[in-house]
Amino acid sequence: MIYYYFGSKEGLFIAVLEEMYRRFNDAESKLKLDAQRPVESLHAVIRFMWGYYLKNPEFITLLNTENLHRGEHIAKSLRAREYSSPAVNVLGEVLASGARRKLFRADVAARDVYLMIAAMGYFYLSNRYTLAAFLGEALEAPAALAHWEGFVIDAVSRTVLR
């Protein structure tokens, strides 16, 4: 049935990656952001991304696998770009709102802030077991996860605030 519906195992994997990104975008589109409150909206976007990674460990696992393959499968996706735009656009609207209110720097690109949030969440969670052994800390503990979420919020806020 794989060959009937997807043409190949590779076609199935590409469809899985596309579905993974679609689900992320669908979940993100349910965020209720208030343009009048850009700082709170920025924090909500960060909490969303962090929470999504925590609740969907398969997201990180699939990304790890695809990165081991140097992105060769997602590069063949006809939908990859349509999935990246909404996530960056949501953040762009928040940043623009903050800049108009003279709360955020106007020279910060949404793409860069998105990568910062994604990197800080993804790295921590994808490497938490080896880092826990290396650092001798329980990085999976609820207090450690809450601490890191707060750290990411603080780091991103310090980057974008005027």
Structure overview:
The protein has helices at residues 2-6, 9-29, 38-55, 57-68, 80-100, 110-135, 142-160. The chain is 75% helix and 0% strand. The chain contains 7 helices and no strands. By secondary structure, it is an all-alpha fold. The mean pLDDT is 93. The protein has one domain (2-160): Orthogonal Bundle (Tetracycline Repressor, domain 2).
Sequence-ordered SSE layout with sheet pairings:
Elements lengths: L1 H5 L2 H21 L8 H18 L1 H12 L11 H21 L9 H26 L6 H19 L2
Helix pairs in contact: 2-5, 3-5, 3-6, 3-7, 5-6, 6-7
Q: What's this, in brief?
A:
The protein has 162 residues and is mainly alpha-helical. It is built from seven helices and no strands.
Backbone shape: globular
> Considering DSSP H and I runs of 4 or more, what fraction of the residues is helical?
over 70%
Major sheet: none
In CATH, what is the class?
Mainly Alpha
Secondary structure class reads mainly alpha
Mean pLDDT: 93
Q: What is the fourth-level CATH superfamily?
A: Tetracycline Repressor, domain 2
CATH architecture: Orthogonal Bundle
User: Which fold name corresponds to the CATH topology?
Assistant: Tetracycline Repressor, domain 2
Tally of helical runs: 7
Distance between the termini: 55 Å
DSSP strand count: 0
- Unreliable residue stretches: none
Secondary-structure element order, N to C: HHHHHHH
The proportion of strand residues reads under 5%
Keywords:
single chain, 162 residues, mainly alpha, Tetracycline Repressor, domain 2, 7 helices, 0% strand
